[in-house]
Amino acid sequence: MAVLVPIIVELRTALSWFGITLSVFETIVLGLGIVIAVLAWAAWPPSETAEAGSVRSE
């Protein structure tokens, strides 16, 4: 999760280039949203059709 901190800071910087300014509170809310999305993705059960390997069957 610590790797998300520089990504969020750089996202805030990139948005400022387009005239979109985020307050510190908005940045924290954005960061929490990203963390929740990553945790939800990690906790989501794999689909039944997913195989153990990453090799596609053709």
Q: Would you spell out the secondary-structure blueprint of this structure?
A:
Elements: H1 4-17, H2 24-43
Helix pairs in contact: 1-2
Features:
58 residues, mainly alpha, 2 helices, 59% helix, transmembrane, transmembrane helix, CbaC protein, membrane
Give a verbal description of the structure.
This is CbaC protein. Keywords: Membrane, Transmembrane, Transmembrane helix. It comes from Natrinema salsiterrestre. It is a single chain. This protein has about 60 residues and is mainly α. It has a domain at about 5-45. The protein has two helices and no strands. The protein has helices spanning about 5-15, 25-45. Helix 1 crosses helix 2. The longest helix is centred in the middle third of the chain and has 20 residues, at about 25-45. It is elongated, with a radius of gyration of 17 Å.
